[in-house]
## 1
Amino acid sequence: METPFLFDAHVDTLQLSLDMGVNLAQTSPGQLDLPRARAGGLGAVVMTAWVHPRYCKPENGGAFQRAELLLDELDGLAQRAPEQTKLIRTQADWNEARAQGKLALLAGMEGGHPLEASEAKLEHFAERGLRVLTLVWNNHLPWIRSCEPDAGPDVPAGLSAFGRHLVRRMNELGVLVDVSHSGTRSFYDALEASTKPVIASHSACFALNPHRRNLDDDQLRAIAGNGGVVGVPFLPSFLDSDAQATSARLRDTDDYRGLAASNGTELEVVRTAHMQAVMPPLSIQRLIDHIQHIAEVAGVEHVGLGSDYDGITTTVEGLPDASSYPALIGPMGERGFSREDIAAICGGNMERALLASLEAS
Ligand SMILES: [Zn+2]
């Protein structure tokens, strides 16, 4: 079948632009750039400002400032490539991008720490174009607990009253709530607080691999009840327990520890080249297993894609970078998904959640 509209709900590419001076309108040493996105038929992508928690320290510039700089890179990319891309703020922007066949760029943020527990800062980011917020990363915040097991002393069990208020503010501001990385209680609290569908932009199935970042069947059904969407990630460690163990073993080696680069982002690029070379391939069929499981448990209208490109050091076989999304289509068809199902999974479902979020409250 012809490549359907493709929507990737989570990539961490902006840091390559900021820290390595990569012009994403040309060719990147990472996993996503405009030429490869075009080759892969990508129609929309959430470009996430992933802020390492070390930036929370004022001496490192602060998390708010780091997010600002990353989002500046997205603005710069959209300005440099106006023929190919459209930065999405409104439903009208979205409709224009779709009509003109431009890559729809959405500003995302991974982890609420750049908000610095300030509603005014959420409003600031929304005003400058933030449209998707992953509430928490692997570091707990005063208003939300992440899925990491070790709870700090002042961490709420789920979302605090302020956290719930922020979720409702996001609903009002047209910022899509993303519950990937949330602790279990935070996940349910966010769904309860949100008046709109939420997404789990890059999470797989706990039933297929009991990884703390994955969603169990009750959570999948809750997403369905909320009208939301789960974006299946392309990271073997999330998809498969053997791959997870192998990856952990390969990172615990002198070869891996000896890798070096001039900054953290460049180091991830070096680590990716190394890991892709040494990791045994994980079949694309394993990724399709997760798509199928979500479709069976939650319904096909609640499955999407969230590759996590440029946030992952290994990828599933056949999906090395943004030029490779069409490799998913044949295997989905062989599993019995109809053309309509495949179109919904590849982009239609995420589009529905996004448009609901962009709707004026
Ligand atoms: Zn993530």
## 2
Amino acid sequence: MNFSNEKIPKPVIIKEIKEESAYVKTFKLGSYIEGYKFENIAPGKFCNIWIPKFNMKPFSISDFENDLLSFTVKKIGKTTTYMYEKLKIGDKIGLMGPLGKGFTIQGNNVLLVGGGFGLAPLRYLLKELLKNKLNITSLLGFKTESDIFFLDIFEKYSNLHITTEDGCMGIKSKYCTDQLDYIFEEHKIDQIYCCGPELMMFKVLEFAIEHNINAQFSLERYIGCGIGICGKCVLNGKFRVCLDGPVIDSSQLKELSDFGRLKLTKNGSKIKIE
Ligand SMILES: Cc1cc2nc3c(=O)[nH]c(=O)nc-3n(C[C@H](O)[C@H](O)[C@H](O)COP(=O)(O)OP(=O)(O)OC[C@H]3O[C@@H](n4cnc5c(N)ncnc54)[C@H](O)[C@@H]3O)c2cc1C
Ligand code: FES
């Protein structure tokens, strides 16, 4: 079997598990096929993680170090709850990928804007940005203390700004995007990278357009096949999140009127984003 083909699920083993918060765990996966090495691991790309006899779901790469691929999973529904509660070190699962298009590294004074499990791809991106010696600022929004994770790495390697909805840490604000004007001026931002709830990303897109700066967004949609065939992840009938994204540039994204408004469900019906 040709394991270098990213469309073929590969057997991997869980080498480490780290509890990041009450709802978030990072799984470090290694290959156990002799001679096989992970390749083409760019920030922003994702993998379909296959739990045998259960389900397959997409997760962004949150780190790559010592030949171990990390995925940071937030307990939300059926699969993620199973992963959080049942998977253990030594379990053998499947991995398809890396899939999709990742971030392009550019700019001098860059801003990372994130919330929720959007911090997963931004964490790996942060490490890659550091190699390019860029001036990095981050703006992270959380609901409350129990939602907070990855703070140590963002604090260590970027000018960190935090907002929380209940004011338990950082600035008390429902929307972290309220801080964009101030941060833009203070740090002379010329490039934005963003991943988080879609309505937050929508505000960042509006900001980027208004200030004429480039922004890159990692989108989320229901993923069926993950390789561009089924059409379940499509925006505006043409942009496939799994193949043309998940990372998309602001100039391209502003042409997709579904963004921030409509998404397809598992069974293909269009619903409003709230
Ligand atoms: C490209 C890509 C990268 C992703 N990367 C990550 C990652 O790094 N870490 C991670 O934890 N997740 C990531 N996800 C999302 C992950 O695949 C979902 O969390 C997962 O599909 C939920 O599966 P589930 O079976 O647990 O929930 P389901 O059983 O499918 O859903 C249960 C309930 O939760 C709701 N729900 C589903 N997703 C969300 C959501 N995102 N926010 C709020 N409610 C939701 C559903 O409407 C449903 O009511 C990514 C998705 C994509 C497309
Ligand atoms: S998930 Fe099938 S085309 Fe994107």
